[in-house]
UniProtKB/TrEMBL annotation:
Protein name: Circularly permuted type 2 ATP-grasp protein
Gene3D superfamilies: 3.30.1490.270, 3.40.50.11290
Origin superkingdom: Bacteria
Domain Circularly permuted ATP-grasp type: start-end pairs: 81-458
Coiled coil: none
Length: 482
């Protein structure tokens, strides 16, 4: 690990995805810019208002965790697309395929022979004290050998050809409904724009998802696989997405109480009695999945589902126990993991990461707290983290104590100079920081990446936090056709 200082970068060092250093519009944005220049300002202002109203009407909200009244908040939508050209996208997809294949191989190894640990490439402590590692998955291989059927890989960009993976969402990546809604909104608002600029489609994602899940059905399936989306119910913050995807896939939307184990199969209650389900796309966490195996108080799951699963008679996507991969300490070993299972160097690098569990790294982090981003190993959603450059002396001092008390609980990374894309403001276009979550579908012999994804944008000027829970918004993401 190179221990060098990277302070916060001056705005001029940030890679602007639309304009080069001389202010010229980059190739990817040229078609959009020509269209934009032709538009009347009043027309654009009106469209900006329409978009806000449309999003209020559809009511895609999400729940802000960690707040007492758990209010529903609307995620703002920005109408300037984030545009990626075909060549860049091809390079990205190769890197994503490599990483996702390695993740699946790693999961299989962790629950079987643990070669990577024997080879000394990854320390055993990583999963020995990891709550997401499930002993009852040991020695069992899911149907088709797939662990992570749906993956969201979070990417950030710092330069023309510099993309880094920020995190892997292998448990239950959310946000795909925004990718689809954002595109639908744009096509409804600016149909003529899509005539001028050839953009790859994302709207067939639900069909691709259904096809990918069906390809993972267990051997006992008769005829066309029956797919169900298992939701915790209407009070869940992502319920809209669960209902939306089930509807678009032509799958059944079920809650735990609609399913039961009958005759060694998971079956769903219908008006004509019970009918077997082959594939369950579950949006319920591991610990609530089966009250007989995990949390006995859970009313969200299906008693006995793990026995049916281990008998190979139902597919659960994503597999229980995949949450291990969302761990930020495991993330820090991804370069070794990719190389171990693919025999190749990673095409998509990690962000440089200091593991505070290691003495030398901890010392470096404590000495440089004001310049680093420190994250909890099991944390998510931007809570429990320190952003050094924007933190007060008091916050830094408090965090220093936490770090010293439980160093193994944290990793640290440099403050990245995230790339910017323009957003629409009353004063015209203004640059804001963005990240990207492409959605990846894995079946036994295919890795399918939808050409687009969820672009999250920090709406506050200068802010690096794109998390929707922290006031970020979203944009339509365009991958140009060749």
């Amino acid at each position: 690990m190179g221990h060098h200082n990277r302070g916060t970068m001056a705005a001029s060092d940030q890679f602007d995805e639309m304009h080069d250093a001389d202010g010229n519009v980059r190739h990817a944005y040229s078609g959009y810019q020509e269209w934009f220049a032709d538009q009347d300002g009043a027309f654009l202002k009106r469209k900006h208002r329409d978009a806000e109203q449309a999003f209020r009407r559809t009511g895609i909200t999400f729940n802000v965790y960690g707040e007492d009244e758990a209010e529903e908040r609307l995620i703002p939508f920005d109408m300037v697309p984030r545009i990626i050209d075909a060549g860049e996208w091809r390079r990205l997809t190769r890197g994503i395929e490599q990483r996702v294949s390695a993740l699946n191989a790693f999961m299989h190894d962790l629950y079987h022979r643990q070669e990577i640990i024997r080879a000394g490439r990854v320390p055993e402590r990583l999963f020995r004290n990891n709550a997401a590692w499930l002993p009852n998955m040991v020695g069992f291989t899911p149907p088709g050998g797939v662990y992570t059927h749906i993956v969201g890989i979070d990417l950030v960009r710092t330069g023309p050809d510099e993309f880094f993976v920020l995190e892997d969402n292998a448990r239950t990546p959310s946000g795909v409904s925004y990718m689809l809604e954002n595109r639908e909104t744009m096509m409804a608002m600016f149909p003529e724009l899509f005539m001028r600029v050839p953009v790859e489609t994302v709207s067939n994602y639900p069909r691709r998802l259904a096809r990918s899940l069906a390809a993972c059905a267990p051997d006992c399936t008769e005829g066309k696989p029956v797919i169900a989306v298992l939701t915790p119910g209407i009070f869940n913050s992502a319920y809209f997405e669960h209902a939306f995807l089930a509807d678009q896939m032509g799958a059944e939307l079920v809650e735990g109480s609609d399913l039961r184990v009958v005759g060694g199969r998971v079956q769903m209650r219908t008006t004509a009695g019970y009918k077997p389900v082959d594939v369950i796309y579950r949006r319920v966490d591991d610990e609530f999945l089966d009250p007989l195996t995990f949390n006995p108080d859970s009313v969200l799951g299906v008693p006995g589902i793990m026995d049916v699963y281990r008998a190979g008679r139902v597919t659960i996507a994503n597999a229980p126990g995949t949450g291990v991969c969302d761990d930020k300490a495991i993330y820090s070993f991804m370069p070794e993991i990719v190389e171990f299972y693919t025999g190749e160097k990673p095409l998509l690098p990690n962000v440089e990461t200091w593991r505070c569990a290691e003495e030398e790294s901890l010392k470096y982090v404590l000495d440089n707290l004001s310049e680093l981003v420190v994250k909890e190993v099991h944390g998510s959603g931007g809570y429990g983290m320190l952003i050094g450059p924007t933190a007060s002396k008091r916050e830094i001092a408090d965090f220093r104590d936490k770090l010293k008390a439980r160093p193994e609980n944290y990793i640290a990374q440099p403050t990245l100079s995230l790339s910017t894309c323009p957003i629409y403001t009353k004063q015209g276009l203004a640059p804001r920081h963005v990240d990207l979550r492409p959605f990846v579908l894995v079946s036994p012999d295919n890795v399918d990446i939808t050409p687009g994804g969820l672009t999250r944008v920090a709406l506050k000027k200068g802010s690096l936090v794109v998390n929707s829970s922290q006031g970020g918004g979203t944009k339509d993401t365009w991958v140009l056709k060749d």
